[in-house]
Design brief:
Elements lengths: L23 E3 L4 E3 L15 H5 L15 H14 L3
Antiparallel strand pairs: 1-2
The structure holds iron/sulfur cluster (2 copies).
The site of one iron/sulfur cluster has 14 residues, from loops.
Protein name: 4Fe-4S ferredoxin, iron-sulfur binding domain protein
Cofactor: [4Fe-4S] cluster
Organism: Verminephrobacter eiseniae (strain EF01-2)
Length: about 80
């Protein structure tokens, strides 16, 4: 499952540089996660790095994007294949 950022986000900026997939960016009001890029950090880390650093615990799983670990792994492989070198 991709993760999502709720409106409890305080725009502290700490999660954005931690994402190995560059899936986090500042939206109109708060930070947002691109569900097409978030792998729950599968392929890079054992745990979601954004969740680890978020001081207000506002990054739950996104129910709009249910994905099992195998699907997240495939997404990681796709992202890696298309990443700029
Ligand atoms: S879980 Fe990992 S890949 Fe997904 S947004 Fe957070 S840091 Fe990025
Ligand atoms: S770490 Fe949490 S509070 Fe800070 S910008 Fe990211 S989602 Fe928002």
């Amino acid at each position: 499952m991709a993760l999502m950022i709720t409106d409890e986000c305080i725009n502290c900026d700490v999660c954005e540089p931690e994402c190995p997939n560059q899936a986090i960016a500042l939206g109109l009001e708060i930070y947002q996660i691109d569900p097409h890029k978030c792998t729950e950090c599968v392929g890079h880390f054992d745990t979601p790095q954004c969740v680890q650093v978020c001081p207000v615990a506002c990054i739950p799983a996104d129910p709009q994007h249910p994905e099992d670990r195998a699907t997240l792994w495939q997404k990681f492989q796709r992202l890696r294949a298309t990443a700029p070198t």
